[in-house]
Request: fold
Amino acid sequence: MTYHYTDSGLDRVFLVNGYEIHATPYGDAVSIHDVEGLHRAIARAIVRSPKRIDGAEFRFLRKHLDQSQKALANLIGAEEQGVYRWERLRKKPVPGMADRLIRILFEESDDDKPGRWILERLADLDPVDADDIKMDRSADGWGVAA
Reply:
């Protein structure tokens, strides 16, 4: 028998095993073995699926990454209201760039790669005014002038 795991906030997650049902005076209760590991595995399944990420999955990934809507919006170059809207429209796919960027963020956090700094750096670059790019040619070739 499978258990429909709706506590994840997702409609399509079913557990084949790794859980126990206990009778209590208030009705049946379910205990899940290694919830953190389960959530990491669910996130991995979402990110590695060829299906576009929908709003509910985006919210699950954002929460798994321990990001507020505002913080994640800043990282991916979106408006906080946009993240709110995507998550509220649970079954609708999020825009392509947001889909790709949250997959990258998860993969980097899942594998402990030091690549998140790239998105943080890009987020910091947006409000900065552009300076002239001064180039200098030396015996080693072209480079940015000091």
Summary: The longest helix spans residues 96-110. The chain has a mean pLDDT of 86.
